[in-house]
Amino acid sequence: MPRHRPRPRTRALLPLAALCAALGSLSNPLLADEAVNDSVRQFLEQRLLEQGLQGSVEIAASSARMPACSEPQPFLPRSGQRLLGRVAVGVRCADSQTRYLQTQIGVVGDYVVAARAIAAGETLSADMLEVRQGALERLPRQLISDPLSVVGMQTTRALDAGSLLQSRSLRAALLVERNARVSVEALGTGFRISRDGVALDAGALGSEIRVRTDGGEILRARIVGRNRLQVAQ
């Protein structure tokens, strides 16, 4: 009688092949690294959204072969870290190992420029400022993003039209000029004394400067208004 050859068990082998492929993907260091990168990318994108920003996140490839990292937990090494340009991100793994990745964050946002030429010492008004948009990571860290935050301040140097406004080029408006006549008040419990004098220093609101009273006494007082100072007792 003719013998029947057994049919190949293709159905039984298919699940086994799929299982082997899955196990192989878990042990593949390239796929494992990509999982870590994805967790870092999602972490940074969420942080940007919390700040009302949208940007691109690129992760630098590591030349060193790193061990597998299960349950990656990204974190920022420094509190209050600026999420712009080159940013280091730490990753804690389930086996207590910690690694650090270098990322590049690009953000498009507002920045303020001079709408016209501004002389040194001019007091800024809203019509002197213009808001533009661009890649913030390519601009200086001291840029101004909100024009209203600098209205009333003075420039410390001349600015051409279109020049970027930076905090280092601005100062609070001077309310007292050197050698100006000023009024100094001394306040205490149940009394208030006012004397006139000459400012020996210039200063802005809240600054503490020296004053020579008309009686020849040298005092230190805090500026509270235009040519008005106060000595707290």
Automatic annotation (TrEMBL):
Pfam families: ChapFlgA, ChapFlgA_N. One of its GO terms (cellular component) is periplasmic space. One of its GO terms (biological process) is bacterial-type flagellum assembly. InterPro entries: Flagellar_FlgA, FlgA_N, SAF, SAF_FlgA. Keywords: Bacterial flagellum biogenesis, Cell projection, Cilium, Flagellum, Periplasm, Signal. The keyword Signal applies. Residues 109-171 form the SAF domain. Coiled coil: none annotated. The keyword Electron transport does not apply. Its main location: periplasm. Transmembrane segments: none annotated. Residues 1-32 form the signal peptide. CDD domains: SAF_CpaB_FlgA_like. It is found in: Periplasm. Belongs to the FlgA family. Involved in the assembly process of the P-ring formation. It may associate with FlgF on the rod constituting a structure essential for the P-ring assembly or may act as a modulator protein for the P-ring assembly. PANTHER family: FLAGELLA BASAL BODY P-RING FORMATION PROTEIN FLGA (PTHR36307). This is Flagella basal body P-ring formation protein FlgA.
